Amino acid sequence: MAEALLTLDAVREALPDNAALTTLRDLAVSAKFDRNELTITVAPGNIVAAARAVQAAGYNFFEDCTAVDWYPSEPRFQMTYHIVSTTLKQRVRLAVLLEGDDPAVDSITSVWPSSNFYEREVFDLFGIRFVGHPNLVRIMMPLDWKGHPLRKNYPVEGYR
Predict the structure, then answer these.
(1) What is the pLDDT of residue 6?
(2) Torsion-angle region of 13 (φ positive above 0: left; ψ -120 to 50: alpha; else: beta)
(3) How many whole angstroms separate alpha carbon 39 and alpha carbon 49?
(4) Where are the alpha helices (DSSP H) in the chain?
(5) Count of domains in the chain?
(6) pLDDT tens for residues 108-138?
(7) Tens digits of per-residue pLDDT, 54-87?
(8) In a domain, 32, yes or no
């Protein structure tokens, strides 16, 4: 398995020279290269800037975003955004780690409007709030549903 944790200096070498990616290099907290794909972890407050940087660098297709609940560990949640460059034929992942007490991250709908429904799904099932989202309401569960069913501490039979 070709897996390696990268130092921030190695991120500079892994990303091609591009003015937009210089910004991304500065925003990176850590990076991991695995299965010929790069995952860059950024601080929660920098996700919109990182999304703009990869978009400006030619990563033109927002594929999806998802979350993982690492309960009982902290940071509890990991948001991962999958972004593709159809011209470069490459994929990059942006990851954000969130604390469990009140998970919130800025919405990237201003960069990729197609992230709207993905963010709503993560909000509905994990309870992660997306600050600045244009319509952050439940999308899968009934509007009066209590809790977030994909959290690891959610009761198997739901709240009674």
Answers:
(1) 44
(2) alpha
(3) 16
(4) 8-14, 19-27, 47-56, 116-126
(5) 1
(6) 999 999 999 999 999 999 999 999 999 999 9
(7) 898 888 999 999 999 999 999 999 999 999 989 8
(8) yes
Report yes or no on 110 lying in a domain: no
pLDDT score at 96: 98
Q: Residue 98 in contact with residue 77, Cβ under 8 Å?
A: yes
Q: Is residue 107 part of a domain?
A: no
Domain containing residue 34 = 3-102
In whole angstroms, give the CA distance from residue 99 to residue 87: 36
CATH code of residue 86: 3.30.460.80
Strand ranges for the chain from DSSP E: 3-6, 28-34, 37-42, 61-69, 77-85, 90-98, 104-106, 129-131
- 30-44, 100-114, 116-130: least confident range: 30-44
Distance, CA of 67 to CA of 13 (rounded, Å): 28
Q: Dihedrals φ, ψ of 151, to 5°?
A: -75, 140
What does the pLDDT average to over 42-57?
92
Residue 136 lies inside a defined structural domain of this protein: no
Residue 14 pLDDT level (bands cut at 50, 70, 90): low
Nearest C-alpha neighbor of 3 from the set 27, 38, 30: 38
**Half-sphere exposure at residue 130, Cβ-oriented, CA atoms within 13 angstroms:** 28
